[in-house]
Design goal:
mainly alpha; two-stranded antiparallel ribbon
């Protein structure tokens, strides 16, 4: 469902007026830390909501403060009546979509927290192997990386074979449209 991102912003504004940075932090919190939008995705969507008459803004202490309009509230009520899922479920899906599917929220959060460490260790292993290419440690590191590559290929191949969408193959989403 394209266009969900702007309505996620509108839902947040339904709880009260916010600055762009507050919206970024609120969305991060609502998705359990699984998704943090960029300013480049927030502001164009806020402008679009203003053009649609669903949100407005005012200058407060030199900062632009966004708020939902009556028309925006009406639009959210209408969407909620026609929505097949609870609002909390939509937020979970928005965050999980970033990671490629309907996985358990705890598993995804764990992956998101360990991913930077894993990438850092891979980079460190590559440096070690490059600095001492003939060492026993370099040979072991190459073996570990090779085994990891094969296991990842097998997992991704089995997901594809079972009909699951692996990591948004063919996804044409841009940063200004981060959530479907």
């Amino acid at each position: 469902m394209r266009g969900e991102f702007k309505f996620a912003l509108l839902e947040l504004l339904g709880s009260g007026p916010m600055h762009g940075y507050q919206l970024i932090k609120a969305m991060e919190e609502k998705t359990g830390g699984l998704y943090t939008p960029s300013a480049g995705s927030i502001y164009p969507n806020l402008q679009l909501l203003e053009e649609m008459g669903l949100a407005g803004s005012s200058e407060v202490d030199g900062k632009k403060l966004y708020h939902i309009t009556d028309e925006g509230r009406s639009h959210l009520r209408e969407r909620a009546q026609n929505a097949p899922v609870r609002p909390e479920e939509r937020w979970e899906r928005r965050g999980m979509h970033r990671f490629g599917g309907e996985l358990d929220k705890r598993d995804i959060r764990g992956l998101a927290m360990t991913w930077p460490e894993a990438v850092g260790l891979l980079a460190q292993a590559a440096r070690e192997a490059r600095e001492n290419p003939d060492s026993e440690q370099a040979a072991r590191l190459r073996g570990i990386v090779s085994k990891l590559q094969e296991e990842l290929k097998q997992v991704l191949a089995s997901d594809s074979a079972s009909g699951e969408d692996s990591a948004h193959e063919g996804d044409s989403r841009t940063d200004s449209e981060p959530l479907d």
